[in-house]
Amino acid sequence: MKRKFLLFALILGFTSSLVIKAQNDQATFSLFNEYHKNKDFITAVDYGWKIINSDPTPWLRYKIFPKMEEILWYMHDCMKVSDSEMKMLNDTILYFYNRAIKYEPKNESHYTTRKAYVMEVWLKANAEEIIKTYEYALSLDPNIDNFYKDHLGMLYIANANENNDYKLKALDLYSKLAETDPDNPLWNQKLEGIAEDISELVNITKKSWEFDKENLEKAWKYASTCLRAQDYEQAKIPLEYLTLKAPEVINYWKQLASVYEKLDMNDKAISAYKKLIDLQPDNRDNYLNLALIYKRLEQLSVSRTYLQRGMKVDPNWDYPVFIEAQLYEQAARLCDFDFMAKCVYLLAVNTYRKAASMGGQFASTSAERVKALQNSIPMKEDYFFRKLKSGDTVKIEGPCYSWIDRSITVP
Length: 411
Description:
Elements: H1 2-37, H2 41-53, H3 64-77, H4 83-103, H5 108-121, H6 127-140, H7 146-158, H8 166-180, H9 186-194, H10 198-211, H11 216-228, H12 232-245, H13 250-262, H14 266-279, H15 284-296, H16 300-313, H17 319-334, H18 339-357, H19 363-372, H20 380-385, E1 393-395, E2 407-409
Antiparallel strand pairs: 1-2
Helix pairs in contact: 1-2, 2-3, 3-4, 4-5, 5-6, 6-7, 7-8, 8-9, 10-11, 11-12, 12-13, 13-14, 14-15, 15-16, 16-17, 17-18, 18-19
């Protein structure tokens, strides 16, 4: 009976001490919370450390670590504190973040990012260690604030040398920023500043891709950098790879088709645009681009076929009508200047008038062409000698014009 009573007393005593400790902790937190609320951060910080140095678990739901972080940053950036207080603050800040990560692992990316920043700005720590900490934070959350990504990028650039790959990493980081935040011109400025000139940037992106050949993102960065440098011969290589590995990505085909055009690789450009038409049958531009290639190749009938397909996609678009008029004008120039050529010029004029009447982007240019061709169309004498009167139709025919299959009406 005595032993049972002793055991009960021990349990009661232990429980009482826990209650007293809990009450003390509650009082400590209450004081911390009150001083924090009243912005008395100097007083609050001592109570905050007492909680963090013991077991802060019961107070996590009351945001003990975010509140303490606010205090520490405010003391560092906004308050006039003594040198000893600042040194103590700097000496303990990393300890604070390590405790925060231990007790709030779900917020590890945030605390690691802030830890990297204070290592860089407050503590002037070793650059390698700062970079590793930023990189770890980025691995935890690729969407950390661009402010911190920029700090990492600046560290890469400042510490790049022949013995590390920091220049490549900076290029990769700022390329991603330029893609995800296209409205901010800073990222492209940083990209341009990484290399001494655009040709070096091309070489950097090329090496980056060659080290990781299966990486489509790096292939695209190499290609887009080549495009910016107008180095189309080099751009062709990664673009061909990208269309092979990701044949459904429209932008890859679009850029490759354009590169083929610029390199006068017309057959390949035609194939690329036809692939784009398969992928985007409702995209009017693909038909027009094909038509323009065939126009340059003087395959005028084929060119008009694709223009007509583009017009079906967008009947209100004046550009294909303008180009069709150019086809007729081009056909007339390629043949002898006789009466039939004059009729073809009139067909061109009538088509330009149609384009002008649509009121689109090419309205004024079309009207100018109508005026410019007035001396090339049939005169009254041309009709008179052929016994043609107003309202008669003249079929466009002859070896040069068999593809046209149109008629003009005598005015």
